[in-house]
Fold:
Amino acid sequence: MSVATTIMTPTTLTASVSASNQPLQLGLGSYEGIAPMIVLGLTALALFTVDSVYPDSTNNTLLSGLTVVGSLIALVITGTQLVTGVESTELFSGQLVVDEMSLFFTFIFTSVTALIALASHEYIGDREYQGEYYALVVLAAIGMTLLANSNSFATAFISLELASLPSYALVAYLKDNRGSVEAGMKYFLIGALSSAVFAYGISLVYGVTGSLLFTDVAATLTEGIDGSLTGVLGIGVVMILGGVAFKTASVPFHFWAPEAYEGAPAPISAFLSSASKAAGFVLAFRIFITAFPADAIAGIDWVLAFQILALVTMTLGNFAAATQETVKRMLAYSSIGHAGYVLIALGALTGAADQSFVLSAGMIHLLVYGFMNTGAFLFVALAEHWGIGRTFEDYNGLAKKAPVACAAMSIFLFSLAGLPTGGGMLSKYFLLLGAVNAEAYVLAVGLIVNSALSLYFYSRVVKAMWIEEPASDLTIDGYPTGLYAAIVVAAVVTFLLLPALAIFSDPALTAGSGLF
Amino acid sequence: MAGAFQFAPAIAALPFVSFLIALFGGRFMPKRGAFAGITATGGSLLLSAWMYFAVLSSGEPHLEIVHTFIAVTDPFTLELGILIDQLSALMLLIVSLISFLVFVFSLGYMNDEGETGLPRYYAGLSLFSFSMLAFVMASNLFMAFMFFELVGLCSYLLIGFWFRADAPPSAAKKAFLVTRFGDYFFLVGVVGVLGTFGTSAFAGDGSFPVLAEQVLAGETVGINTFGFDPQTWFTILGLLVLGGVMGKSAQFPLHTWLPDAMEGPTPVSALIHAATMVAAGVYLVARMYGFYALSPTALAIIAFVGGFTALFAATMGVVKREIKQVLAYSTISQYGYMMLALGVGGYVAGVFHLTTHAVFKALLFLGAGAVIVAMHHDEDMWKMGGLKDRLPVTYYTFLAGSLALAGIIPFSGFWSKDEVLFEALLRGMDNPIFFAAYAMALLGVFFTGFYTFRMVFLTFHGEPRTTVAEDPHQFGWNMKFPLVVLGVLATVIGFINMTPIAELTGAHIEFLHVWFEHGGEALTVEHYGALLEQWANYGEVHAGSALVVASGAVSLLFALAGAGAAHVLYNVPNPDEHTDKLGSIKTVLFNNYYQDEYQVWLAEGLTANVARGADTFDQGIIDGAVNSISGVSLSLGDRTRRIQTGDVTNYATLLTAGLVVLLVAVGVLGGWFV
Structure:
């Protein structure tokens, strides 16, 4: 904690404003920052190539392997840059920005992509359209990465769509499954509505400020706008907030989430609830902190709006999760609840707060969440692979048959609840501390109450697995290597994040401070 | 010899290693882990002897901190350390010697008798030795408490060794619970000491006895005594710690566990009574004597409880039928003498009696064990008789132990008990409380002589009263060897401190006194004497040689009277149950003054009702609140769930409505519509 409070040196806004006025940079060195995206793009192209050469092949291993290798290379590049540290660089006339925050989120996206590509190897098995499946995953990952680098509303909107459109298709991937197709359709409809709201919000903001670049918008707002336009700007800001809330699956833009997570193939559920949600948050952090600095737009209290969203989202998510009958849907609602926790990072940006600390707490929670939630959904994928059913009771006595996977699942679930089996405890603690520092006591209480409630439904799964007697006909066929590997890796990382948070919090904390 | 102390941790570590070996590898070993234990305790014995001579040659105590739990000094430090001074060096020697002999004896008592579960037995025995040795070496009260508890746990495990029968598990639980009751007070005392002084170290400049004395002398300020007068507060702390002492050392009224603990294997009884568990309590008082010396009230309580227990337990020993029961009550009684000695300021006398008692009580228990083996595990003395000629080694060693216990000159018990009584008499001459304690202890000597020789005569003399006693089972060297070693020691160990002879002849033969005159600052007997004189008003009393001899003669007379009475009544070919003539008194004595009954009544009538009340509160109010909260949560959750209708048009409507609400809320607050 002492690290968090000592290294903060808020950079001034003017530095980045002047940077945006530089001429177009296209030197080779400037591509260094977007190298992960380029690698992912090449991976997608390679997948397309393989798929067009062998259109009917079901060589899952090759496709899955390509995706894993591609995302791992991107992961390593990102990790290296994160460790060595980067200067905040703007590219393409300020349309994109490469800084520690973008790298931090790229790290999350590439990790999750690698995990789910690995896990999909057995899950997809010998279904049709494998090339498309992996390509769509990689394309969505590019969209999310681009979202993390966006520095203007135009790129933000495009990359949001680039992340979302493959996701709709992926949710509906199980074409012969009614639930999957229906969920994809609903996801698409709600997505279209939200995109429309988002685009309309952008147009209003553009109308008032005359710019799409985040930094320019902020500069205009700091200079002050005509008082009569405050309402127009305010409506724009809240509508943009709506677009972001869709991506983070926050109430009331969450309606797609439970059904999409439940209907989608389980690895895709993991992908959407971990990576896609993180993408929504990085967008929110960029827009609201860079473009709409709270002290520059008096009269538009988006901090309050986020406080309301945070409280409603975490409460609704956890309360609905408590009464679910199927594990996957419980996880879907718990994912909504966790979105509520991370929203604290924005809702606690009050004047009293140590702002970069609060923001960093949210980012760290997303990092930990990326592993523990992905792992939990992958365990569900494993259960679906075995075909043992979906309800809590169907998991009875599973630990007798698959102790390793069940131990991993227990780590995920307890970490999600905030017990010290993984980094989840510390990241939640940081959020709590941030909320208390910001004097947002309602959020702090909400976090505690909801965490306590969440322990109930998480431990239901643990109880079923370890304590209940198995049904007499419980059999599992084989131990799929890829899925197991992905689950174990996620479990190990989740567990190691607890002691390692001291190390990882450093890049996260600098990333958070860079925006102020 | 400075190098010797580097090996000090090994004294405790060796039995711990043998614990692990016996536990995990015992079943693969020829004697099920016995040799590991013998080797380990033998090694501890050698190291202890080395330590003893190291202390002897340097004269300085050895104090080192081995491990610090939490590296902060404020508000207090918690650490593990080693303190080897005159007291702990002597005690280490005793404990490791007895442990070693008990291990050897167990070869005969357990292995040769074909007992099962031996790895568990030897593991427990090793852990017991480890705990006690570490307790003796402890450099602070906190560490002492840790190992004190571990000693209690080990006694639980070993007393309940034969867990398939009914009585042993019950006895084990009783021992555990009763001593635990005392340990609650001890724990509070430890916390109190830490909270008051910020340290619980026994020795050194910043140790708590030294700090306490400085506070009383007005040299140190800033010690929080929680609003009490310092001396009152120190008395309270001392009495709290004394709670643990009275539980472990089986002092009235927490002695009830000890006779039941006879359900354990006899070698375990020997270890518990002579060197480990029961000794731990008295040792603790001696260890922090510098602290008790500051509180005349605590000392008076120690002395009086000790004197009372000495007599009280001795009377109950008179009527018992079983050989181990007699010994059990004699243990309670003898520890009473030690407490009495410490209470009246006879530090050396108390430790002296602890030493001699360790030897002769171990001897008597092992001898009783041998008799029990010979009698095919029948412990009733009325079924024995005439074993003298059939078990000569056992008889003569047992006799040596009995003479020591009864306090017959020149056996070891005489010298130490005489010194205890002499110290009590000195103090009793100007304080009636101490005189009462002295009188009870002196009367106890008579009963001790009586029950001891009643036991000897019933067991070994007369005619065999059963066929088993006519042809007892014979046993091997592994049981005779410990008996012989201890028999010799029980005869001669008293010579280390023959105060009456020294007084008469002027020869400097009070070796134990000399031994304790050396040592670290604030750990010597002179220092304790000075403290007693200054803070407890135990002035120097100059007793003439006549008084010394007279005191010795009186106690010897009482012992001989008791033994003589036993001789008259029981040393006949076919003794009668003379105790039947006591009528209802015998019933009272046989039922141990109904101590168990009233304690059970306290537990069932009082505690259980309070517990039921607490349970009702917990179930009804606390759990009720918890249950209703979860009920409300779940029903709320169920409603929340229903928002998700599955109809996408509903979703779009709710989404838009939500956005509008948010817009309006932020707008109104932001004043957009003004």
